[in-house]
Amino acid sequence: DARVTQTPRHKVTEMGQEVTMRCQPILGHNTVFWYRQTMMQGLELLAYFRNRAPLDDSGMPKDRFSAEMPDATLATLKIQPSEPRDSAVYFCASGFGVRAHEQYFGPGTRLTVT
Amino acid sequence: GNSVTQMEGPVTLSEEAFLTINCTYTATGYPSLFWYVQYPGEGLQLLLKATKADDKGSNKGFEATYRKETTSFHLEKGSVQVSDSAVYFCALSDPNTGNQFYFGTGTSLTVIP
Fold first, then answer.
1. Which of A106, A109, B13, B69 is the most buried (most CB within 10 A)?
2. Could you report the per-residue pLDDT of B63-83, keeping only the tens digit for each?
């Protein structure tokens, strides 16, 4: 049963610290998405990649957030420095093909910044 | 631009009641439409989809029909169960980019025995 995996599942950190979240997309999927979910804003698209190339990261605060795909099996989302307003659940999703009609979501990383 | 508007929640129903969650969309082209479900503590899961007008998506007793004339994709189930308690998201994918997804705000459903 192929699944998207994310680590860590929970992260508590202090303001100013660097946070790195990792995602392993489903093997063979070539599109990866990063989302942030909060009660106030709902589900927001932060960035997405196709064939490891970033296609759109306009939803991401560029001064502190960065997203990369070092290889086809790993996507990372970094926040440096972290702030309390970054507290949210971060989801990674993967899909296949140009249209990537179906996105398969990971279980999320719940981030708390104190 | 593209957007999805779905019914505000929360919705509380008794077991075996009929469910409708409304969803309307705005799109520049001919989008594909989706319903995703999120159970507590989990990521979103695809529930059903429809890729063109008049298509009906169905899964696990849930149905939704892609209505181009009313720009709607309402989710229905004839008899809900306690296990259907979750948050439901309507979404569209932009055919022009093929990748950009637009999600609604989600509707929380609680089914009581």
1. A106
2. 999 999 999 999 999 999 999
